[in-house]
Amino acid sequence: MISSKDVENLLQSVELQEIETEIARVTNCSIYESFILINLSKKEIIDSGFSIEKIISFIRTNKKMIINFGVKLLLSDCPKMIGRGVSITYSIYLIFITEMREDFLAYLTIRRIPKPKKATAELIALKETLDTML
C-alpha cells in the first residue's frame, strides 16, 4: 500500500525537484506547491497500478527523458505554472508508453483525461518524436 508519507517523500526528493526545476526553467513556468498535491499524486500512482518503488527507479534512471518529454509537452500548451509532482505524471505516462503501451488508453480513461484515445496517440507520438531526436 502506498502511504501519503511515501508520496510526500517522493515529492520532496532531490531527483524529482531537479527534474521539475529544469522543466520549469526551460518552459518559463513557476512551480505550484501545496499539500493537496500529495493526495492527487497518491491517487495517480494508485490508479497506475505501479509501485512507488517502480516510479522512483524510473525517475532516477530516466531524468533526461522525463525532462525532454515534459518540456516538449508544456511548450505546446504554454502554461504559466506546473504543479509539484508533474514529473510523477510524466513518469507514469512514459512507463506505460515504453513498457505497457497496450494499457495506456485504459489508464488515461481511468484518470478521466479528456479524449483519451486522442491523448494516447498524441503522447505516444511525442515520445516517438523525442526518440528520433536523441
Task: Outline the fold blueprint.
Layout: H1 4-11, H2 14-27, E1 30-32, H3 36-48, H4 52-61, H5 63-77, E2 81-83, H6 86-99, H7 104-110, H8 116-133
Parallel strand pairs: 1-2
Helix pairs in contact: 1-3, 2-5, 5-6, 5-8, 7-8
Strand content: under 5%
Structural class computed from helices and strand pairing: mainly alpha
Q: Give me the side-by-side strand order of the main sheet.
A: 1-2
Characterize the largest beta sheet: strand count, sense, and whether it forms a barrel.
2 strands, parallel
Measured as a percent range, the helix fraction is: over 70%
Radius of gyration equals 14 Å
Taking the alpha carbons of the first and last residues, their distance comes to 36 Å
Shape: globular
- SSE string, helices as H and strands as E: HHEHHHEHHH
Q: What integer is the average pLDDT? A: 93
Low-confidence stretches: none
Total count of strands = 2
Q: How many distinct helices?
A: 8
